[in-house]
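Supplementary Note 2. Why include the ligand at all?

Several targets in our set were suspected to adopt different conformations when bound, so apo predictions alone were not considered sufficient. For every target with a known small-molecule partner we therefore ran a joint prediction. The input for N-(aminocarbonyl)-beta-alanine is given below.
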Amino acid sequence: RINRERLWRDLMELKEIGGYDDEATGLRGVRRLALTDEDARARRLVVSWMRQAGLKVRVDRIGNVYGERAGEEPGLPCMLMGSHIDTVATGGAFDGTLGVLGGIEVIRTLNEAGVRTRRPIEIGFFTEEEGVRFGTDMLGSAVTAGRLTLEYAHNLTDAGGATVKDELVRIGFDGDAPEIRPVPHAYIECHIEQGPILATAGVDIGIVTGVQSISWQRLTLRGEAAHAGTTPIESRADAGLAAAEVIVEIRRMCDSGEYGQLRGTVGDLRLLPGQTNVIPSEATLTVDLRNPDDTLMTAAEKHLAEHVDALSDRHRVTAAWERMARTAVIPFHEGIQDVIAETADALGLPYVRAMSGAGHDAQEIAAICPAAMVFVAGENGGISHTPREYSSPSACGNGIDVLANAILRLAGE
Amino acid sequence: RINRERLWRDLMELKEIGGYDDEATGLRGVRRLALTDEDARARRLVVSWMRQAGLKVRVDRIGNVYGERAGEEPGLPCMLMGSHIDTVATGGAFDGTLGVLGGIEVIRTLNEAGVRTRRPIEIGFFTEEEGVRFGTDMLGSAVTAGRLTLEYAHNLTDAGGATVKDELVRIGFDGDAPEIRPVPHAYIECHIEQGPILATAGVDIGIVTGVQSISWQRLTLRGEAAHAGTTPIESRADAGLAAAEVIVEIRRMCDSGEYGQLRGTVGDLRLLPGQTNVIPSEATLTVDLRNPDDTLMTAAEKHLAEHVDALSDRHRVTAAWERMARTAVIPFHEGIQDVIAETADALGLPYVRAMSGAGHDAQEIAAICPAAMVFVAGENGGISHTPREYSSPSACGNGIDVLANAILRLAGE
Ligand SMILES: NC(=O)NCCC(=O)O
Ligand SMILES: NC(=O)NCCC(=O)O
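The joint prediction is reproduced in token form.
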């Protein structure tokens, strides 16, 4: 079993890199967007912890970082653990970091117990998992898995125009290890659930059956600026109103049940010129759709596109869609799920099986080797992407105990 | 008759102070927000033109600028002309400036013709007419008319926290003339219509019967940030969705006819934290309502407040309203309207009478003396608050000819 106090101390220490006082909640949150100065400081701290645990560290060309513990039989594919350490702008201490710091804690525990494994064990943390800075989530792991090219990823820009490549160079994490890594034996990621399923079931542990489909698009509606007081209602081309109707329709689609378990969110919306007495000439919004069913996801995207066409005509605005990210439903490896289940059973920890609502690096790595995930329950209904995100020391400890024992077993295969 | 070429040259010269290339329209626009460096440069240029025309210039404590031409009988209340030279961030060359530069052109014409008048004639330009920087429109004229106190106006802040007082001092227009000025004999403002009524009627000239009621409020909706992928639809507190429903309801209110000729606009909306995969925790929007009927305006505000209460409950968000500006319907002086009508008749210029959709300094000055306005038609349906705003040299010339002759007559009374 791992050292829970040590794990907790590390989680709390890392939390302060990018830590800020959140006005909305009155809580201490974390703002550590990928490849920012905060991310760089966090990366250096985590690398130092990896080295202290005896790991050999390498950085690849998309900035993914791996720490390796040698196995007894050199040349065998490794057992890989991992996750990410970047956060959203209003994040908590657990999203991603639990899997990375938990992985280091697993290594320390093996070291202290003098346990050697047949296979090497590696920990990876992947670049821009959140996708909020450069617009594409699971970016580093998607490049490693070959779903996105290195060139595509390098050229993505943030809101200020900085590219991924420039930022990698700037923070000193433009590594030279090939982004297409040696194929692992298997991959397990421990992550907080970020949702209510485990809490509702009253268990600390979830075995993740897969990840639902994710669709991210940016929609720009262009109308015409005009005076708010003098312009007749019927002659307006109000881009803000059109955007509002899009938001309302997305919610209607979710409520209707026509698209199954569809979840839709408009997280960002900007109006130009953005003045009290000027009708908006331009509205740019992000559209985040999730669906556990690929067919229903495609149908939802199609309906929304048609609906936007119709309302654009009605409001005399033009609509331009930009694809940010799109993944299909990804099922996890049943054999690895079963190993995790048997481990939890052996530890006497009850669990449920559940599909993930959030995207995870594991869904990318699943394309190159057997992969699965351990979920850890969160409090407050599992709320995440807010400083209210919280998983207890015992829930975190239980999750990493499961991780440790599953890794130990698979590294011995 | 005034010198149309000279007036046009001045309009085009002033346009370049704050001139910018507008991406949305591909046109040259004007961005000269009140009390910015651009406004300061424009003020200095206009003051120099006033002085060249022989006017004695004074600046009052809210930054309103007056230029005075002596009358034959000292001590008589003056005939006042005026308007404003600040613009919105996506403005054109005519909104406000026509009345100010036209007024200077009237003075030059009188000077050249060697005409003296019984009463003094003054031109005024008023601070922050647009209201887009500090949130309250007709600010300078409202202080002069006693509707708002100097202290209230001085303490208003822009989005960056700068106060009106600080900015007045910074740009050197914190004058010492009393803000409550000597009562004029009468006030006439020439302004572009900024709407389609004159163009539809096929005339260059409008005689303004009054200004409709204006209501500006800022609404802040607060919900809870949470993960877009994992948070069930039914447990969300999505401030962005609530804001979208407010926008859609405002449009429904306008379309329904329940509130007469209500016009409603949400020109600005900001979401926090503004990230693709985070449900918005906060939405702040401006609500601009206009109504030619005071009773229906009050009913519209009441309905909207109740509707927002209901939808806030439904979405588990809180709603906080902040009053930015509010004016009742202001009728203009019928005697002055008739003088303008007789002047237009004498010049052979057809006109229509119409209520103003936009707010104007004249509606404030109307509280202290008889006041009315001359409207000048615009092209492209009279569109304004966009670089597409355009009134032809002949329409502008006709409007200022009417102004000149009406002023001449009233200054002789
Ligand atoms: N786990 C997590 O928050 N991933 C970010 C990608 C997503 O929005 O699902
Ligand atoms: N004329 C004009 O644009 N005034 C600004 C105040 C308003 O929004 O009506």
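The pocket of N-(aminocarbonyl)-beta-alanine (ligand 2) is lined by residues A 227, 229, 277; B 95, 129-131, 137, 194, 358-360 (CB under 6 Å). Chain A touches chain B through 73 residues (CB under 8 Å). Comparable summaries for the other entries are listed in the accompanying table.
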